[in-house]
Protein: Alpha-1,4 glucan phosphorylase
Amino acid sequence: MNLEQLSKEQFIRDFKDTLHEEQLIKVARATPAELFTTLAKLIRRYYTDTWIDRNHKLSENKEKVAYYFSIEFLPGRMLETNLLNLGILDLVKESFEELNVDFQEVVEAEHDMALGNGGLGRLAAAFMDSLATTGYPGFGNGLRYQYGLFKQRIVDGYQVELPDSWFGSIGNVWETRKDHDIVDVKLFGDVYLQADQEGRIVPVYHNAQLLHAVPYDVPQIGFENGVINNLRLWDVEIPEAYELDYPTIEDRRRVQDITAVLYPDDSNYEGKQLRLIQEYFMTSAGLQTIVKSYLKQGLPLENIHEKVSVHINDTHPAVAPAEFMRILLDDYGLTWDAAWETTVQTMSYTNHTILSEALEKWDAELFKKVLPRVYQVILEIDHRFVSNLAKQGYDSGLIERTRIVKDNQIHMANLAIIGGHSVNGVAKLHTDLLKEDTLHDFYTLYPEKFNNKTNGIVQRRWTQIAAPELSQALDETIGKDWRKDIHQLDRLVEFANDDTVLDHFYQVKKVAKERLARYIRETTGIEVSTDAIFDVQVKRLHAYKRQLLNVLHILKLYLDLKENPDKDMVPRVFIFGAKAAPGYHFAKSVIKLINEIANVVNNDSSLQGKLKVVFLENYRVSLAELIIPAADVSEQISLASKEASGTSNMKFMMTGAITLATLDGANIEIKDEVGDDNIIIFGMDKDAVYSHYENHDYYARGIYESNPTIRRVVDSFVNGTIPNAQSEGTEIYESLITHNDEYFLLEDFSAYVAAQEKIDALYRDQKLWARMSLMNIAKSHKFTSDDTITEYAEDIWQLTKNE
Ligand code: 26V
Structure:
């Protein structure tokens, strides 16, 4: 259906009809959930033909397609994005006004689709949007978890995790089950090789478990371009023919467990069998379908890389090269050499963290038990890799360090690198560090495989949806073209000295702050003034991200104010949002401490409202949409070299916050865009950090003992300053002093305090601050994921645009 022709009257008629048919109810009596479901169903009807046409056209034209394999996708809510991209968001808003329906309530009836932990999953979702928007044929492949990332509640200052039953009573209104694309996935059993009648060696399975992988497709709608791509999420089912093998509820539950819940751990790698099965299940199902649909085009299998790219998002789907080999060899009888050549050219891999402990390694025995045939294939890949390098005269140490199977473990990153043609990092510094450090051996072997792709964000979500007032101010200042071409934002620079424009943008920020202040009041009871600086750190709680450094500074301000209540400072509201992995003790202690500090600070009238601390529970995409546009200061204070890229840093910048940052990840590229005057950089750089590692010369206790300010702050963890958090205080104290402050907080503390003082001074000059803010918005276009994905499509996947 051509939605450009859609009138308000027609829409209202369609909507009422749908409501009557689906819910047997009139608008005035419908609940927000009923209205939401109805609206979703109606717009599904609007786009279905386009979606079907797209799929037909791609296979008719034999277009090359990229498949983005990711164990996480974190789209958040889809309603507004879908309406915006279909070009009918304003029309629907206006129609609802006529119908006397609160559109925001309808939006909020949608549960976040939270099938991801943080940056990696959010990036995958952003790429889906950008693939559709740029018109490239790129499909997602993942898991349809019953429960997404846990819901966080704060009880007595502690994090409590509850299941995220996101299907709720509504279900996932966007998905479509595709029965005709069900495939079989085999697990466990014994395998041996046998010659068949034609003398081909084929595997024979005994006692294998055969499961159905059932696909559910979620449309990915491009922005105003008539393109709809596909995100395919797999669920597991027991095939009818095998039902007798699962006589009890427990037996069935063990199968359903495969797609029951997203692993919530981004801080500690655990080689759990269920996780391995999850990874294999989605990879195998995806690859089998890809091969089948390729073969329908009647092209030779050994050339599949000409029509298909498979992208391995982090090591989680890194079994892909081996599984692809298995399919080509066993199911379709290709020779090893032909299969290997096309596999390498099909596969590519992105690394998302510099921490080498995050690279997955599977116990060889476990792997062999769960995936006996894939294990054989991996042994063969490893064997050929080793003997090839040895033949070429490579050093045995290098061979040992880069091979896939060693020390009774399967090294998944090694498989992804050896079995693919491209390895990329997610920001310039990160890619450099991969080359120099984490993956240095591979870089010496295959320099041509390495490339950088700096992350990006879906600008439409963070401006047009999350920041409507900002978007309107942009329309009024530079015209509306930026909505289609984000690079137009650069024209804002021309207004850097226009007082009226600066004041307009300052007021826009105020409106967003008022909205957040209202939310804070309603959810926590804490009163915050919008005249205060809103200083925000929202991200997963992790030691390397250094929320604790932020806490140290807050404690310093508190102690200063207690000593001198008249201290001249711009009032501050420190806002946190962070989930800790359920088993991450340290991270949970930091959450408890933040909450207890909040209790002390927010209830101390002697501070005259100069200091407030707010911890907002259950940080997630939809909450980010409320918080980020309201921020004055964006805290990006990870230890240099540790944050691969960061992406919230880009969202804050785009909505006019000033970044307070270390030279880490994409912060460096943000600085390059806005210039030194429009960002506050502090602390050690990556060389200073690495120098400590090389020289083993960091001594936290020395800093603590010689610096009275630091001593006073650190002591406040254990001297009763923060009641109700004794054991957490002690734990933190010990992490800093006894365990030598792994992330060098104490060394960076003084520079951080100085940077915060600079913020205080700059904020007093309203015009100067507004100009900095404007410059950040102007330069943020650099970080659109539309451009990032274009680079992936052109450099790695060699796709052609197809709209
Ligand atoms: C980290 C760790 C660290 C210790 C061991 C286990 C483990 C497992 C997972 C992770 C998180 C890695 C994946 C991830 O979310 N990386 C984030 O990816 C974002 C998108 O590229 C990027 O912006 C973030 O900087 C990066 O942390």
About this structure: The first helix runs from residue 8 to 23. The pocket of 26V is lined by residues 118-120, 123, 266-269, 314, 352-353, 355, 357-358, 426, 455, 643-647, 665 (CB under 6 Å). The two ends are 16 Å apart (CA to CA). The first strand starts at residue 65 and ends at 69.
